[in-house]
Amino acid sequence: MQPKITVIGSINMDLVTEANRRPEAGETVLGKQFSTIPGGKGANQAVAAARIGGKVTMIGCVGEDPFGKELLDHLEAEGIIIDNMESVPGVKTGIAAITLAEEDNSIVVVPGANNLVTERMILQNEEVIANSDAVLLQLEIPLSTVVNAAAIAYQHGVRVILNPAPFQKLPDKLIDFADVITPNEHEYEELIKDYSGDLNKLKEKLVITKGGEGIVYYEKGTEIHVPGHQVEVVDTTGAGDSFNGGLAVQLAKGASFADSCHYASAVGALSVTKFGAQSGMPTDKEVNGLLKNGNKEKIEPLD
Fold first, then answer.
1. What's the pTM?
2. Which of 70, 137, 220, 273 has the lowest tally of Cβ within 10 angstroms?
3. Where would you find the membrane-spanning parts of this chain (predicted)?
4. Residue 121 labeled ligand binder
């Protein structure tokens, strides 16, 4: 059965400029290439989940502008249900202005319509949330909306997967509502520093992504390491979003936590082998091919 995943979050157009170096203040330099690429953590995760077989509904906002129409068309072409998206007049679609230079990136995000993903929208879509197998959340929309969405999912017994990025201090009640929380290493440090509750209880909800090193999660107090996969890295943008989409689909299918983590790790690994956050996201066939023929390693407790 196709698992029903509801993604509530951001949708942006990434404006990517490649140059040999960044300009100094007041300076103009010639760039090498410019691209417009669909992005936003919510949309990225929705595409990742849809590519591997999830029946994905996206809840979010765009502006009534060319970027908004293009992004909605793109989501629909990926097989994502966009009936619950809103196009807001008088507001610009969110953008991320990205400069790639000197083997690094600089990013300015303008949330635009993403700031209008409100608690009202969540209440209007309560039935969609209630009928989901999993709800996937991030932090590029107002935090109050994320808390409200998690609360409604929790009330209906729907699994909540929270990607705490970009990081901000989480209310304890949001942590309580979440079944799984997926920080990277830096977000993990901030999360445990801020948390005032039972740290051991919190850790049982965590899946910590560590880039090429793989992931770590906790099982009855034991730290478990799932090694990463050896792949040729082209672009790491969206790797974490790919991981979250993969994890949501597998957990919604009823796979074990360990198997879901290993599958999601392969999704994230394959996503870095192509340029662009969404263009590199793999299909289920590709993921299973890596798991079957790649370097699938034993899941081991860490000392």
1. 0.90
2. 220
3. none
4. no
* Element housing 198 (H / E): none
Q: Which residues of 251-275 are buried (b: 16+ CB within 10 A; e: fewer)?
A: bbbebeeeebbbbbbbbbbbbbebe
Does 237 show up as a binding residue in the annotation? Answer: yes
Determine what percent of the chain is predicted with pLDDT higher than 90. Answer: 70
Find out whether 41 is annotated in a ligand binding site: yes
Is 295's pLDDT higher than 70? no
CATH class of 4-11+41-92+113-301: alpha beta
Which residue out of 73, 179, 194, 241 is catalytically annotated? 241
Domain ranges of the chain: 4-11+41-92+113-301
Q: How far apart are CA 38 and CA 56, in angstroms?
A: 17
Establish whether 241 is a catalytic residue. yes
Ramachandran quadrant class, 226 (left: phi over 0; alpha: psi -120 to 50; beta: rest): beta
**What is the pLDDT of the chain when averaged over all its residues?**
90
What are the percentages of helix, strand and coil residues in the chain, rounded to 5? 40, 25, 35
Backbone CA torsion sign across 277, 138, 265, 254 = negative
Helix runs in the chain, H state only: 41-51, 66-77, 119-124, 126-130, 143-155, 172-177, 185-194, 199-203, 239-253, 257-271, 284-293
Residue 21: pLDDT band (50, 70, 90) is very high
Give tens-digit pLDDT for 168-200: 999 999 999 999 999 999 999 999 888 888 888
158-to-36, 117, 131 alpha-carbon distances in Å: 35, 20, 8
Q: Does 79 appear as a known binding residue?
A: no
Joined together, the tokens standing for residue 117 give 């993903």
